[in-house]
Amino acid sequence: MTDTINRRRFLQFSAASVLGATPSATGASPATPFIAGLSSRQAPLPRASGPRVVVVGGGWAGLTLAKYLKRFQPRFDVVLIDRHALFVSCPLSNLWMAQQIPLEFLAHSYLDAARNNDYLFFNATVIDLDRGARKIHTEQGYIHYDYLVLAPGIDYDYARLGVDDPTDEYALRTDYPAGFTGASELLTIKNKLQGFKGGTFLLTVPAGNYRCMAAPYERACMAAAIFRKHGIKGKVLLLDMNPDVRIKRDGFLNAFKTFYPDIIQYETSVGISAIDPRKRKLSTDFDDYDFDDAAIYPPVRASRLLERLALADMNTPQKEARIDPFKYHLLGDEHVYICGDARSQPFSKSGNTANSEAKYVAEVIVAHVDGREIPWRSPQTMCFSGVHIDPLEAMSIIAFYRYDRRQKTFAFDRTHMVEKWSARIGQAGLAWGEGMYRDMFYG
User: Fold this and answer.
1) What is the DSSP letter of 133?
2) Tell me: the pLDDT tens digits for 281-322?
3) 0.70 cut: is pTM over it?
4) Which one, 27, 36, 99, 236, has least CB within 10 Å?
5) Which of the listed CATH numbers 3.40.50.300, 3.50.50.60, 3.60.130.10, 3.40.50.1000 matches domain 160-301?
6) Rounded CA gap, 159 and 164, in Å?
């Protein structure tokens, strides 16, 4: 009964918000019947030809899941839902900002991916979930599922930067976007860097487990390289909320010193307490920093979609779902899985990690259907970081994970890190990217 009431209230709220409806004299929204109609009709999709698995979120995890669920079990009827019509990759986007690769390298068609891998792509927005009836609701109608996998990624948590005013948060999102959740953010940051008139360009590194541990440091290198290439008289102020570089420490610090000693100013253990987007001022407990432009990366949390669907653990710092750490299913429901950057395990929130763990989760779901269990397998984290351009020079790391039974947590296991940058590794990173896109989008 409670789920029904919550769902009804949510749908009424959605009607008023999305359609701009105003309450009538009786207090009922005139748009409610429209939304109620959506919740009672099926989405315009072909009839399921077998057990239907719905994947929500078309990032690196979701795309991989959709492909490999169908590959591992051809009887599955797989539907991938994403609210975006076009895929634009966050991994490798820093290189695009520095004009080392074209946009076509990052942008790919969901329609091609679905056609090439024999699943359905549904361009829609998820608005509700009925786990009892196994229905996922979108603004275009509901879809019955036998299994549901949520891979909705991350959202930003500006409150952890001391930003509580919605007006200030909106200004930060639009004027100084982080560049880790959408194509518009990436394009805005590229335009900012390429057209910067000089002064201080602020970048931040969040605390906690954030998307792509090395990316903020790589972005600082790419920004500095752009300034040098175009003769821009500016500096990159990199404020790190952590006590040290999180990954490839020696390599990044050496790159800052070797290539950009007069451009990159790197500050550690910066506890951000407030940001004034209008005065362009960032404050800590001890200092104030003025800036002329910025791309501000706040701490992250799991996608708010998990919260709206009543799946998030709101008592955890990053609002992730409570899932079995080895099987990825929601605790108490082996028909709902959480994968990718919204999952609760402390693995790297990187594209390669999401791709490799998604293949494992696809195997887990197939095994569950067959009444089998498979042993846990570590995801693989592979990451290339550019530090110099024309020619592109990069560093790399490959890592796996293990479960520490005494500490009851996951830790790094086998790790191979190359912190001596080279053009060879730069080209290897591009080849890796091409291979990953081929894996996700082609048969």
Assistant:
1) T
2) 999 989 999 999 999 999 999 999 999 999 999 999 999 999
3) yes
4) 27
5) 3.50.50.60
6) 5
